[in-house]
Amino acid sequence: MKQPSQKIFSQNKTFNIDITGLTHEGQGVGKIEGFVVFVDGVLPGENVDIKIVKQTKSYAVGRLVNIKNSSADRVKPFCPVYDKCGGCAVQHMSYQAQLDFKKDTVLQNIRRIGGLQNIKVNNTIGMENPFKYRNKVQYPVGSDKGDIRIGFYETRSHNIIDSNLCDIQPDESNNIRDVVRDFCKDEGIAIYDEKTGKGLLRHVMVRKGFKTEEIMVVLVVNGNKLAKSDELVNKLLEYFPDIKSIILNVNTRNTNIILGDKNICIYGQKYITDYIGSFKFEISPLSFFQVNPIQTEVLYEKALEYAGLSGNETVFDLYCGIGTISLFLSQKAKHVVGVEVVADAICDAKRNAEINGVSNVEFLVGEAEKVIPELYAQGVKADVVVVDPPRKGCDQLLLNTLVEMQPQRIVYVSCNPSTLARDLKYLTEHGFEAKEVQPVDMFPWTGHVESIIWMQLVDKNK
Ligand code: SAH
């Protein structure tokens, strides 16, 4: 890696750079004399003046001073606190350009890292209406000289931006926040101070079932109760009759982790219900559930299509979380085995299979790279394997076993195009052919790139 010279790091100097890419966090990427620089608020193709604000051994961070040559894709951000809030990184890019950019990112990674020049990458499937798409929000609560703030953290800081409206949340999430804030002000509720560890209310989480319209409000408190919580419950129900569950979540630890382990239900049910496709899910405060349910359905339908099932197959769903993809696959498979490392998620997966009356799935706790070699050694094989790993991609031990096992198809769901491309290179060098890639936009206005790929075992007799 090229080491920086002192000259590059002078904080007084203005540098002119070309922006050539975007990171998954939506930061622009450019170079000064071959050294990588990340800059917020810029777009590929732009020429900008920046000042250096931070330096490390391997990269620098620049602050935008002036756009000299602006991209045709640049648009005015719709959010008034866009400059400060750390939520959406690419609101200054038109939605169509985001979709094109995400497709191109997948394509370039597969070509450069995967070494596959002729693979078919479809256009990104975007949202018809890329607003109000999140079914979960977690607002930090803070107080600044007596002024209560409930909103979002500023980029790379714990300052809270209290905006009136966040357009990627449903209206209820915005409005519930306003009611809680007014209540805290009127009733003098003690707000948690992360520096001193004193005060009560830390976070407000709102979850909404998009198909059922059921709403859950979670009040995260530094203690076992919240003063005047009965009155707050009444006030929330008065304004939002669709609330089905209000929970006090106890978190007395001095930590950045939002939720504690203990939940006290102070109104209604302990969970809300929602559907993905025809499958029903019970969602508790601590449950994992995909945050964009509309695009999740699109992604899972594609997984089912790429799995090409006829009803006779044994399918592995690896990194299965709460078993959502497994349930989708169960519709057309003989048997599905879901594997996931988090034991609580597997409990949820089993429960989800049960409440949906699905009996041709089983779930195993453990690392896919341990469980699958063991199953294979016992003679258990899959005809189709679906993997949906975290950002670091699949473990090499797992890939080795898949190469030996020779399933007819592998469907790879990826949130990181570079590890996807790395794993794809290995699999295509060891007997599989990459057929098609489909990027799906799960998080509009962010740099996040999700894609799904279909691989087929090469028939050696052909
Ligand atoms: N397929 C699920 C979740 C995908 S997220 C869905 O669509 O909702 C990736 C999942 O992989 C997480 O649930 C994480 O806990 C799990 N995981 C991470 N490392 C793992 C490993 N080595 N083996 C099995 N699961 C793992």
From TrEMBL:
Stretches assigned to the TRAM domain: 6-66
A Pfam family reported for this protein in Swiss-Prot or TrEMBL: TRAM
Full protein name: RNA methyltransferase, TrmA family
Key word Transcription regulation present: no
Coiled-coil annotated residue ranges, if any: none
PROSITE patterns: SAM_MT_RNA_M5U, TRAM, TRMA_1, TRMA_2
One MF term in the entry's GO annotations: rRNA (uridine-C5-)-methyltransferase activity
